[in-house]
Design brief:
Length: 161
């Protein structure tokens, strides 16, 4: 499962880079294109910060932090070898999205964003959504399915009686 999750993560990163290549080649010159009226636009944005463009100009800090986080996740996977398929789906999404954005930061100095939804203000990209979904699923996994966490909750609950 570990190598499959990493392979899927690499596939996600590659897909992200292919999409961003087409976005930068075709969308950058025009700026924005409406895909679905009042719902979805593709808008070329160079995000030099992190979420919502915050902390602009801290490129190398984010490169180091992202690389460390990806390494920590991979090391955890090899050391603990969780049995849950949900955990590996989370890892594939988070690592794949993280690598996709990391490549942008290293080679361009910014992350290429392009998905603009009318009901969600910031312009994001495929990698951002992979990271977001993976993190959301990881929280669900930790809260409801992770053995160690649930056993600690049960011990504390039984000690309160």
């Amino acid at each position: 499962m570990i190598f499959l999750a990493l392979a899927i993560g690499l596939f996600i990163a590659a897909a992200d880079q292919v999409i961003k290549y087409f976005i930068s080649t075709n969308l950058k010159p025009v700026g924005s294109v409406t895909v679905i009226d009042n719902i979805l636009d593709f808008t070329y944005v160079e995000n030099r910060g992190v979420a919502f463009g915050m902390f602009s100009g801290m490129r190398w800090i984010f490169i180091v932090l992202t690389a460390l986080l990806i390494c920590a996740i991979v090391i955890y996977m090899f050391k603990k070898k969780p049995q849950s398929k949900l955990f590996y789906v989370c890892v594939a999404l988070i690592v794949g999205g993280g690598i996709g954005n990391l490549i942008d930061r290293i080679f361009y100095g910014y992350v290429i964003d392009y998905i603009s939804l009318s009901f969600f203000q910031p312009v994001c990209n495929f990698a951002d959504y992979c990271i977001t979904v993976g993190t959301f699923l990881l929280v669900i996994y930790v809260l409801f399915f992770a053995k160690g966490f649930n056993e600690q909750k049960k011990v504390k609950a039984s000690g309160d009686e």
